[in-house]
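dumping the sequnces here before i forget
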Amino acid sequence: MSHPRHELDDLLGHPVRFSIIALLAAADKAEFSFVRDAVEVSDSVLSKQITTLEQAGFIRVTKGFVLKRPRTWLSLTRDGQRRFDRHLEALRDIAAGNGVRAAS
Amino acid sequence: MGPENIGPDEARAALAKLGDQRAAVARGDFERAGLLLMAGWIVLFSLLIVVTHGIFEWPWLVYLQLIVLAGFAIWRGLRQRVFSRANRKITQASAAATLVLLTIMNFGVARPLGWFGTTPDWHLVAVSAVGVLPLLVGAWIAGRDA
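..and the predicted 3d for all of it:
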């Protein structure tokens, strides 16, 4: 038996990182400026969190051009999606008041 | 919201953010506009075929169609900053359903009823209007989260 909080991902405990991942979970891919506007953070804050998430294997960053305009695209990796799903499951358990559940 | 001190209220607050972010993605995605444009264009194109019959040659209508589609694709490529995961599947499903429905309407309904002659008439528009229903349903579903 274990408390669901043990299933929470430490990295997603940060509200900005959680918002970024929640946004990318609903998207195939999102452009840097879109994520910045939706999460309501500055370029530098987003850059820092993206680096952290990319290094942790949560997200993939790809750079490209649309008619000579540079674009930075962010997307969730398969491992990131799996870890986020596990984090959400733990949150739902906690929200439902399931303090302790059988360890899987 | 550290993992050590998170309680039911903090967990609910975090989960509530999911809906906000899903809505932001749905608003930023142009899939719904694309579906509505596709539905409108199919009906308009069939109307153009009927109205311009005998005036314009076929290739000009095909060129017009290509220009409209290419124009929308370029505009979308420049403006769209997010691509929704759910909407892509909705678009694929509704476009496939429209293709099937248009084929059934044209060859299973229109021809047996004698609506499909050598001269295009308003039946073509009616068939198109019915055929685009899956696109409209898809647009409605795609717009629910926005």
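The beta strands of chain B are 82-84.
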